[in-house]
Amino acid sequence: MGDIYRCATKVIVWLGPGTDDSLIAMQALRLAASHVRFDDVYRPLPKHEDNCDPDWLDMRKPLPYDHETWTSLVSMLNRTWFSRLWIWQEIFLSRDHAVVTCGKDTMPWNDFRQSIFCLIEKGIPSKYESHDCFLQAADICYLRNPLTIGRTLQRSQWAQCSDPRDRIFAVLHLIPEAERRLVRPDYTKTPGEVYRDLVIHTSVTTRDLNLLSYCEIGDQDSSMPSWVPNWAVPCLYYAILNASADANSGWLGHYTSTQETLVVTGHEVAKVTDSHDILSDSSSIPKTNRYSRLKHYHDVMRSLIRGLRYRFDQNFDRQVERICRTIYQNTFADEYEPPFHRHLDFKATLEFFSRVIAQDEKKAVEKDYLEKASKFLCAFHNIACGKTFIVTDRDNIGLAPRSCEEGDIVAVIFGCEIPLLLRPTMEGTFRVVGACWVEGIMTGESFLGPLPEGWQCIAHHDEEKGGYYDHFKNLKTGRIQVRDPRSLPLPDGWIEVDHPGKHLYTLYQREEEEPNKATRFDPRINPHYLRNTGVSTREFALV
What we know:
The chain has helices at 2-7, 20-35, 54-57, 67-77, 87-94, 109-122, 133-141, 149-155, 166-169, 177-180, 191-206, 290-312, 320-327, 346-358, 367-372, 374-384, 445-448, 527-531, and strands at residues 11-16, 36-38, 44-46, 98-102, 105-108, 254-256, 261-277, 336-337, 388-392, 397-400, 409-413, 420-424, 430-435, 437-438, 455-462, 467-474, 480-481, 494-496, 508-510, 538-542. It is of the alpha+beta class. Among the domains are: 1-144, no CATH class; 279-385, no CATH class. A hairpin with a 5-residue loop joins strand 2 (36-38) and strand 3 (44-46).
């Protein structure tokens, strides 16, 4: 089926019969697309250089749409086409050949996606922002370059399909060919078997364990091992972005089918000794009541601060910057190159967080203050609420799933970019509790130690490839490089490969091997080599 859409000269996106409101919605989208377009990092550019209205390029200026137009857009974007999972491959493969059709009204798909970007970037008015249809339409419009199977499954989790096995099978044409070859649709298997086999094939064939970071013990089907993500249950947590805790290593271990055990190797960082739930039950607050929702987010942040002030006591003031980075998972604009405008500025966020700390809790929070602080409060809610703030026996702090318990282990596993929370069992095995963001170990510190002073790990955008790659920035000179400044000499017999993408990532191979045997995994990150640097590793049998 994928080949049909890939080879088609034209693909019609049929939204359904035309109505009065669909005519208004299509007209509004065409208007936006006629004025502005967006580049790969969603910076606005004029659609026509010789006819540019500056108001359309200024993302602070609201769209010139009235209430009827916005309600028409909501109505159209809530049509069933947008909710179906199988249409993702249709639109991804057809790309420039797709045409959106609603009744007799049509527009090119590329114009449609640019107009949706315009709605998102300029901002949905608060009266309509509670409608999920805008962000869901944007998720479909973002489909441009293949993502890993894990990121694709996470991004598409809200889309609907009647068969839970199709959560995997329906998105195979959206992922790189190397990953697609690992999965053959087989409807004789149960959903649990499909999900399990995906993890096994990916781990064994590619030495990539990143699928483990999508596990959540609270969502687990009792018939599946804890190391198998349950893709039938949507994950409510904000994705952990740009992590490289494993220092670009590959999986070391094996799978035992008789016991459904996945053996992995890694470093035990610390044990959880204290936790503070970041509670946020806003279900009783109407989505349309913006003030009540912002006040609720503010109250949740205050409650967290009270708990942490009590926990850290006199040391609290020295922990403020660490806490701020943790509750926002360090998702700030300056962690990108160029700075990503969608994310918060760290200095501004720290100033806001410090103001909340200094507030007199007995005084009522003014509405104007909440509105000005809305971007900080909404980001806090999206990233941290529903999780647990953890403290370990080695004074690490982080965010973990709500199902975490005292005694759970923070571990960095070879082949998994994000740290995992593991729960020991009486039998000496471990269950995967879920992924966690832990301050101070997210960029390979567990294996390589902290970055030298004046260096920062950033996500560097490459315009040619259209993606982000881990790079290192010298903050004194501004120089950006691929090589980690902590890198040690390569083991005997290993070399770095000269390849076309060497400005983006490093490949390694043994001197006597053919170039097609090159690997992206750093040969220095293995138990034997690390033991010589004083880093301990161990096996974890996951059940």
